């Protein structure tokens, strides 16, 4: 809800800008994992000039464990910069953090696109790509945290738009992959067009950010931005998302944020109370952790299961049908597009009901049951295996598993984010948000690390 004396957001330009900025924060992660077949093609053939954006019937050999490394090196920067946020926010101005991160991502994605045309041996290509993945996701972590800091001064509807952009990034990447594959051009041109797409998206994000100071509505709120401590800026992420998750707005698996149960209609009334002398004393981190440890553990386990097989194992599953169009489009559609759509749907379900509640012991049981997806996916039609048999060769098995896997991931992530604030006192919610932020990043990193083990067991 906007303040009474605030100007209007003419033509919704500020809202559109934050939507595009949200999209830009998660485009890199989604474009890299969706293009796994292209990278595997480049790494499987010596001196390949372009690889391919599609897999053949048997699939390329993942000699470098690209699936695992791209997942791990995407999530470790998130955990690292979650811990380093205090230092960064003290030493680097906000404009430098945001604009510098966007330009760094743009430069590295331009390098990735240029490498499509470069004839290079698999070893150097792998090293350059992994370095790009690390630095791109480091920039993304800084960018995301800084933008959430800015959103803390805006009406809550703008955090909704930002999160909507983040939630659609995965779907956008999967659709871009399908369009490039269906374009009918040669593999090299198709790959180049695919990687130029996020460059355009990041460039639009730069333009949107630079336009904010020239929009009266944005100037009004950003000019009134209070002095924020490093921890407060981390905790701002927690304050922004509770109402958004309840409204069905998705949050990406990579977004290290937690929601707090704040009424957006009352948000402006809360500001004068922040400086009142009767404010409760600073809550103990240990006491808050004692209250939410089970919910935090559930969040860690949800992401551990998800990142341990997606995309490291799921991207290796191929169609059991004879080579053809369906075989070519099977993984982009049934793995990446289906996961992102159903994950979004799962997160939206919490706007209608929250079950089980915070006092129920069913939540840990449901979270632990998701570990069944690990053997189920590993026993699907993955041609590259040395130990385990294929028990679920038909495509229908993989599609069914992916539907349940994605919906459960979205729902349980959103559920834990909604339940954690209900387990603490109102003045303890900020600390709970900061703790859950760390545990979310920890779950992502644990899952990415565990993917190496599951890949070796195939």
UniProtKB/TrEMBL annotation:
Its membrane topology: Multi-pass membrane protein
Amino acid composition bias (Polar residues), ranges on this chain: 249-258
GO-annotated cellular components: apical plasma membrane; basolateral plasma membrane
Transmembrane segments annotated in the record for this chain: 12-39, 69-89, 96-116, 128-149, 161-185, 191-212, 292-317, 329-350, 362-384, 396-419, 431-454
Keyword Cell membrane: yes
Reactions listed under catalytic activity: thymidine(in) = thymidine(out); cytidine(in) = cytidine(out); adenosine(in) = adenosine(out); thymine(out) = thymine(in)
Pfam families referenced in this protein's UniProt entry, alphabetically: Nucleoside_tran
Principal location listed in the UniProt entry: membrane
Keywords: Cell membrane, Glycoprotein, Membrane, Phosphoprotein, Transmembrane, Transmembrane helix, Transport
Superkingdom of origin: Eukaryota
One BP annotation, GO: thymine transport
Region (Disordered): 242-279
Annotated localization: Apical cell membrane; Basolateral cell membrane
Molecular-function annotations in GO: uridine transmembrane transporter activity
Function (record text): Bidirectional uniporter involved in the facilitative transport of nucleosides and nucleobases, and contributes to maintaining their cellular homeostasis. Functions as a Na(+)-independent, passive transporter. Involved in the transport of nucleosides such as inosine, adenosine, uridine, thymidine, cytidine and guanosine. Also able to transport purine nucleobases (hypoxanthine, adenine, guanine) and pyrimidine nucleobases (thymine, uracil). Involved in nucleoside transport at basolateral membrane of kidney cells, allowing liver absorption of nucleoside metabolites.
Family indicated by similarity: Belongs to the SLC29A/ENT transporter (TC 2.A.57) family.
NCBIfam families: 2a57
Name assigned to this protein: Equilibrative nucleoside transporter 2
Organism of this sequence: Sciurus carolinensis
